[in-house]
Structure formats: structure tokens, C-alpha cells
Automatic annotation (TrEMBL):
Claim: Hydrolase is one of the keywords in the record: yes
This protein's name: Amidinotransferase
Stated family: Belongs to the DDAH family.
Record-linked SUPFAM superfamilies: Pentein (SSF55909)
Source lineage: Bacteria, Bacillati, Actinomycetota, Actinomycetes, Micromonosporales
Signal peptide (residue range): none
InterPro entries in alphabetical order: DDAH-like
Regions crossing the membrane: none
Organism expressing this protein natively: Luedemannella helvata
Keywords: Hydrolase
Amino acid sequence: MSRRYLMCRPTFFAVDYAINPWMDPSAPVDADLAVAQWTHLRDTYRELGHTVDEIEPIPGLPDMVFAANGATVVDGIAYGAQFAFPERAAEGPAYLDWLAAHGFTPHAAKEINEGEGDILLAGRFVLAGTGFRTAHDAHAEAQELFGRPVVTLQLVDPRFYHLDTALTVLAENQIAYLPEAFSEGSRRVLARLFPDALLASAEDAAVLGLNAVSDGRHVVLPTQAVGLASQLAGRGFQPVPVDLSELLKAGGGPKCCTLELRS
Ligand code: ARG
């Protein structure tokens, strides 16, 4: 099924600050390679038949490439992001302005939330992460705005600071996740809601393999997540590996670069 995505070219990408354990400002980043890898991701979506819109990158916002954090868009309603760290604060209004200009109904958030990084639509439910970035109160705000049941999930491992680094939605009622990234109670919630979920290995999660984008059939995921790719193939999905090694240095993968626009 064809999807519509919003992406932001990593023209000004850098690792200038560290707001997650993946980021090391003293390590070199190849900015040209980052753009080439990102371009390949964009073109991969287009080859799969999806529509990709682009938002203009803004100088001084090196993490703006991570479009998933820009908002959450469901039923044509855009729930704006309000970032936890000041370094990324200006991204929220930039994304919300773009969405408003492109026909989505904008809603400026009262509560701290980092968009689809922590808020994922999974069939009848909205799964929402908290613990590192998105505030628990934002889950109630999202539920009220979207009129869909929001399920709170507690993240416990700082390497998996956003929900989309620990869990991916594969189809309406199918997800894959890393149980260890969640609190005991949240693991039980996930097991109850998704008894047939695919459980990822620690190795695949450690290369952000779960930061994947599924259209229900093809699953775009980091090349390094070889075990997960074969698990997915075993379930009838078609893995589409992409190498985003430069963006991984900022703690991001394919899903982080991709905001789904649901009208
Ligand atoms: N450096 C960014 C940050 O820490 C990476 C964001 C990754 N995005 C995501 N959806 N997980 O905020």
C-alpha cells in the first residue's frame, strides 16, 4: 500500500552536541556520505511506489534530518512536537508550519513530545513511549486530539531513548520489538496486545535494526540488522536493507528520517 512520507535532506547534518548515548561530538562525521545515504533512502521509498515530500533544512539544526521527531500525523491532524532539549526546539515550529501549509490541521503541543519518535500508530492503538524524551502527559494530549486509545510504554534503556528505536510497526496488528528496552509492566502490556509479535535480538537492536519503516509488505531497515531481516522474511515480509551508517552516529536510522503523513 502506497504511503506518503516527509523527509529532510541532511544538508546541515553534524554531531555537534550529545543528547543520546550514540552521539560523540569528537568522532568524525562524513557529511557528504550522510547526504548520499539519505538520498538512497528517499529514492528507495520512491521505487517502492511511495510519495516523498521534502522540507527545507535549516542551518544550525543538525538533527532536523530526523523528520519522524517533527510531529505525529493521523487522520490529517498534525500533533506538533515540543522537544525535550533546547538544541532541537526550533524544529517543532518548522515542521508544524510546513504541515499547516500543506493542508494538515496543526495542533501546537502543550506537552513535551518528540513526534513519531515516541508516538506510533499500530492498528487500533497508538503506542506511546516515555521515560527519556516524551512526557507522560503528552500521551493524554495525543489521545484527546486523535480520539484513539493511547497505550503508554515505559522505556528503560538509554540507548533506546525513543520508542521507534525499540519497536517497529510492521502491519495493522503486527509489531517487532526488543523486550529488554521496556519496563516489566510494559513488556506484559505488549505481550497481551501483540501475542504474535516478532521479538528482536539484542544484536539487531544494537544497530538500530528496529528503526524500520514498513508499508505492510516491504520493511526498510538498516543493512546491519541481518538477523532481523531474516526473521522478517520468515514472516512473509520483504526486507529492504539500507545503509545509514553516518546518521547512526547521531542515534538515527531509516524510521527517524521518515515522518508518515496520514490524511
Ligand atoms: N540525535 C537525535 C536525537 O537524539 C536523533 C533522533 C532520532 N530520531 C528518532 N526518531 N529516533 O534527538
